[in-house]
């Protein structure tokens, strides 16, 4: 028994001494009225001894390229495509996390997430690891997770953590949001997410964020009032700031109609 305990201790020490990156495929249905329109993005979970950070790889690559250009004095724009911009920073042995969400400002949301996991006596193999089933409820959804104690991080995709091992697969009961691990690697590189300093940063509590989020869904241009100047394009066409504001409002409200199946569905209720 002492030999087994020593082996487990050494395994945990080895894992936490390294920096680990886990790649997940994230498949989701943005519009519940069109379940055939499935989006896919790859997400990264970077873990070191002090924190973990979960983010979309497309946005990370775009921000990294723009930051590199800015250091050369080049002004570049992000690609014209939808990208997941949310980030989640979690801390070992803590239920507290930081959720970073960009609306018209960058909100850094301090949140306490305590998940009540129910472990099931069901197992399957994922990437050669023995995985156990667990269920919980979060964000207005029921979730099914498969985790392995073979990778000793009590972490997982998005805001999910707290199981005795890494979450390898995660899916809600409506099959609208599915995270599946696709790869992992050790790295010696110190991870720093690129900061473009192009948004005002606002630190708020989660209840405050809920109010901001709901207000934004009802009036998506409230924070832009008085900030958009009149403009004249190269052909001489004049557009007032008020007209542009109305066009932005119409566009965003149409986008929200098709974005009705968000991961934390309780925010829309």
Describe the secondary-structure layout:
Elements: H1 2-17, E1 19-28, E2 39-47, E3 52-56, H2 57-71, E4 87-90, E5 96-102, E6 106-112, E7 118-126, E8 129-138, E9 141-148, E10 166-172, E11 177-187, E12 201-205, H3 206-218, E13 231-232, E14 238-239, H4 241-257
Parallel strand pairs: 6-12
Antiparallel strand pairs: 1-2, 1-11, 2-3, 3-4, 4-5, 5-6, 7-8, 8-9, 9-10, 10-11, 13-14
The poorly predicted ranges are: 1-16
| Integer count of domains | 2
How big a fraction of the residues is strand?
Answer: 35-45%
Instruction: Quickly name the level 1 CATH class of the largest domain.
Output: Mainly Beta
What is the share of helical residues?
10-25%
CATH fold field value of the largest domain: outer membrane lipoprotein receptor (LolB), chain A
Task: Tell me what the structure shows.
- The protein is of the alpha+beta class and 269 residues long.
- It folds into 2 domains: 18-187, Clam (outer membrane lipoprotein receptor (LolB), chain A); 216-268, no CATH class.
- 23% of the residues lie in helices and 36% in strands.
- The chain contains 4 helices and 14 strands.
- It has helices spanning 2-17, 57-71, 206-218, 241-257; strands spanning 19-28, 39-47, 52-56, 87-90, 96-102, 106-112, 118-126, 129-138, 141-148, 166-172, 177-187, 201-205, 231-232, 238-239.
- Strands 7-8-9-10-11-1-2-3-4-5-6-12 form a 12-stranded mixed sheet. It has a two-stranded antiparallel ribbon with strand order 13-14.
- A hairpin with a 2-residue loop joins β7 (118-126) and β8 (129-138).
- The longest helix is centred in the C-terminal third of the chain and has 17 residues, at 241-257.
- The protein starts with a helix and ends in a 12-residue tail after the last helix.
- The model is unreliable at 1-16 (pLDDT under 50).
- This is GLPGLI family protein.
- InterPro entries: GLPGLI.
């Amino acid at each position: 028994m002492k030999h087994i305990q020593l082996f487990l201790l050494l395994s945990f020490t080895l894992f936490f001494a390294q920096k680990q990156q886990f790649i997940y495929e994230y498949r989701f249905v943005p519009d519940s009225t069109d379940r055939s329109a499935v989006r896919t993005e790859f997400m990264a979970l970077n873990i070191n001894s002090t924190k973990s950070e979960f983010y979309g790889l497309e946005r990370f690559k775009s921000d990294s390229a723009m930051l590199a250009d800015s250091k050369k004095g080049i002004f570049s724009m992000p690609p014209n495509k939808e990208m997941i911009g949310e980030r989640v920073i979690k801390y070992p042995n803590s239920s507290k996390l930081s959720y970073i969400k960009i609306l018209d400002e960058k909100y850094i949301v301090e949140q306490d997430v305590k998940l009540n996991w129910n472990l099931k006596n069901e197992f399957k193999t994922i990437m050669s690891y023995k995985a156990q089933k667990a269920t919980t409820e979060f964000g207005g959804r029921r979730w099914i997770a498969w985790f392995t104690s073979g990778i000793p991080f009590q972490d997982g995709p998005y805001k999910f953590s707290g199981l005795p091992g890494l979450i390898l697969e995660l899916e809600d009961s409506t099959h609208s949001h599915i995270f599946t691990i696709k790869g992992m690697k050790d790295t010696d590189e110190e991870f720093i997410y690129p900061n473009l300093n192009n948004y005002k940063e606002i630190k708020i509590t989660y209840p405050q964020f809920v109010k901001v989020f709901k207000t934004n869904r009802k009036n998506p241009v409230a924070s832009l009032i008085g900030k958009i100047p009149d403009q004249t394009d190269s052909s001489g066409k004049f557009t007032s700031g008020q007209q542009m504001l109305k066009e932005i409002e119409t566009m965003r409200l149409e986008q929200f109609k098709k974005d009705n199946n968000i991961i934390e569905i309780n925010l829309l209720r």
